[in-house]
Design a protein that fits this description.
The chain has 144 residues and is an alpha+beta fold. The protein has 1 helix and 6 strands; from the N terminus they run ββαββββ. A hairpin with a 2-residue loop joins strand 3 and strand 4.
Length: 144
Amino acid sequence: MQKLTRRAGHWIGNNRGSALIIAVALTLIMAIAGIGFLLVTTNSINNDSDAYTRDKAFYAAESGALLAAKYLMSRSFNSWPAPDPHTFYLDKKINDLYVTVTIHKSNPLNLRQDTIKSEAFTSSVHNATTFKKRVKIVIQNNGF
């Protein structure tokens, strides 16, 4: 049995090591909290980076489509590119992405709807892993 002594109205025993246990417990709690904050911060950075990449790809694809639309508007309808589909740009670098723009002419007997399709890729190899964004513009022609 532990020997207790009385000082200033309190019973005092042998308390050696209790400060060490409290310090270790607080250190573990702070380490767990720090790891939690690190995980939350890392997740937030990854989400922001993905959003930036998606926006960058969208703007690149949109720029390619708008360049093709400007090209088509500067020409008369009869002098539009003959082959269907016509590749306007093949792997043009916009925003460090490879943008390919294709123009599809409609059948002249049907309602005239020409399509501009612009796709952004991370490399010149076009596959599902390098694909980032597609923008499609449909042009309604009234026959003039």
